[in-house]
Amino acid sequence: LLDATPPLLLLFNGGEAVQRFRIPGGPDTVWTLVFDTGSSPAFVKSGSRKALGGGTCSLGAHSVLCYRLK
Q1: Residue 67 clears pLDDT 80, i.e. is over it
Q2: What pTM does this model have?
């Protein structure tokens, strides 16, 4: 069952200020954005935004990011 779906990474920011998060994995680890509730539209075109392991991303106040491991 666990082999059937790629892992998801969920980042939550319940605070008032933008927060920076370190993306897990090494430089060869690629995460693809599924949705970002701080953006409009929240759901992005498949594969249009990626993050590399070891990098950082900014998460707006009161928002959630979801990445899928690719």
Answers
A1: yes
A2: 0.83
